[in-house]
Write a structure and sequence with these properties.
There is one protein chain. With 92 residues, this protein is α+β, with helices and mostly antiparallel strands. Helix content is 46%, strand content 14%. It is globular, with a radius of gyration of 12 Å. The two termini are 14 Å apart.
Length: 92
């Protein structure tokens, strides 16, 4: 799967990592809904760090269709809330 982190680029991520990412996504969804700004910032950072750690960066000149788009590290709660669906940022 190709994941884009807005403002950073794309990484290739094996589907086997989705369970781990979904746990962080569920936390982020709950923190976004509750307005927990400190938890939101911590969990967003952890989610993006996990994608970077588990994925392989694509070259800067590569432009693949992204199956998943994640917010930039400095995204606000309101910006992330606008990107959320019922499952969070990551389907499933």
């Amino acid at each position: 799967m190709i994941v884009r982190i807005m403002g950073e680029g794309q990484v290739r991520l094996d589907d086997s990592h989705l369970a781990e990412l979904n746990e962080l996504d569920d936390e982020l969804l709950a923190e976004t809904k509750s307005g927990d700004a400190e938890g939101f910032r911590r969990t967003l950072g952890a989610l993006l760090d996990a994608v970077r750690r588990l994925g392989a960066p694509l070259p800067d000149d590569s432009l693949e269709p992204s199956e998943l788009i994640l917010p930039a590290p400095d995204a606000t709660v309101a910006e992330v809330r606008a990107m959320l669906n019922d499952d969070g940022l990551i389907p499933g």
